[in-house]
Amino acid sequence: MTQVCYEKWFGKGTVAFGKRTCHTEVPKTGMLWTVFLRWHYQEPAAEMAPVAKVGGLADVISGLGKALQKKGHLVEIILPKYDCMQVDQVSNLKVLDVLVQSYFEGNMFNNKIWTGTVEGLPVYFIEPQHPAMFFSRAQYYGEHDDFKRFAYFSRAALELLYQSGKKVDIIHCHDWQTAFVAPLYWDVYANLGFNSARICFTCHNFEYQGTAPARDLAWCGLDVEHLDRPDRMRDNSHGRINAVKGAIVYSNIVTTVSPTYALEVRSEGGRGLQDTLKVHSRKFLGILNGIDTDTWNPSTDRYLKVQYNAKDLQGKAANKAALREQLNLASAYPSQPLVGCITRLVAQKGVHLIRHAIYKTAELGGQFVLLGSSPVPEIQREFEGIADHFQNNNNIRLILKYDDALSHCIYAASDMFIVPSIFEPCGLTQMIAMRYGSVPIVRKTGGLNDSVFDFDDETIPMEVRNGFTFVKADEQGLSSAM
């Protein structure tokens, strides 16, 4: 899991990290001294499963937090209090009897602070008392003022930590939405004496970088003249400022979500930031994400018709039969292969290859179930047309929305699972599919290359081979793997 690798960089035992020597407890056990380091992590983020989920970031925030917590660390999450979040997924939600004031656009604004527990993790929710009602919207992202919304949130999150007096070891920010935390911490809060922590920044996808006119940095109190420079936050290709670039420059350590993706972003995959990554290469590394094996566990999964494990796969056949009945799929031939696909329908995910896989499966006499939707109207309409085309075919089903409970059932029922991404920083669905006994068929890119190893590749030990892969992002490559 990811946190094991962090110990390599942040240290075990009494270790000086930068100017900070972290706290230790040293219990004596017989003739040996055991050093146990308990870190205090703060994780400001835009998503967290299952309370505020758009994509894989949400799963990583909750999964990593739980894994670190199991190792004895103190982990606290900070989220915006979205009107659209799943409040029923928060235990003991209550508003604190405090008001945290934070700076924005030349004024001080109050913020209500809520607390609760999500997946066993303590979470702070920030509700801005700002006339723009930044998080009282019908969606998490996609608003015209997203840059302003998350610049505000980043400043408010740091103000919460500063005013609380918490002794924090690591502030771990994620993606462009909380990338502002890094320059704000060192240029504003360190000067106020809040300088005990070190900053870790993880970019989960370099496709999204948070760019805006340089003047917009002043909203949250950053010095535009100081930061609008090529070696700081000025965007490398658009003449604007770039939030992700600022986090790369200002963080103590920068990670991305797989070793292969870390190599890819040093060239064209960096989407203009490859030169910045080269300059800061000594503090940049790729760590393969993992999944939450408690949430994704077929032997305890409450959504399944029959629970099962690797030693007894009869339950998988029962779940396949149950999904066929639920979706009104043909069930005369139990051995008829079922291909699953759970994804956002965007260009990155290889929508043309997903379309091909649907038709190819129908041609070969298999069954195909797609669960996912697209934020791009043209792509959504295209797949609605495909769904209409197959509406009378009892071997093909397209469910063009996200349904968490149904996703568990598809993982459990599918014999094969396709992930034909054009690029994929890490990918979690292929890992979940394998956890549920479904064979992944993936394109060799990013984290897919680091987690799926072709069954026919004789250069790889047999015990490591776990799926089928293809290289070229074309229909012929996918067909050969299928």
What does this structure look like?
With 482 residues, this protein is of the alpha/beta class. It has 2 domains: 2-286, Rossmann fold (3-Layer(aba) Sandwich); 314-481, Rossmann fold (3-Layer(aba) Sandwich), CATH 3.40.50.2000. The chain is built from 15 helices and 23 strands. The strands form 6 sheets. The chain has a 9-stranded mixed beta sheet, sandwiched between helices. The protein has a 6-stranded parallel beta sheet with strand order 20-19-18-21-22-23, with helices on both faces. A two-stranded antiparallel sheet has the order 1-2. Strand 7 (40-44), helix 2 and strand 8 form a beta-alpha-beta unit. The longest helix has 19 residues, at 146-164. The radius of gyration is 23 Å and the shape is globular. The two termini are 30 Å apart. 45% of the residues are buried.
Can you summarize this structure?
It is built from 15 helices and 23 strands. The protein has 482 residues and is of the alpha/beta class. It has two domains: 2-286, Rossmann fold (3-Layer(aba) Sandwich), CATH 3.40.50; 314-481, 3-Layer(aba) Sandwich (Rossmann fold), CATH 3.40.50.
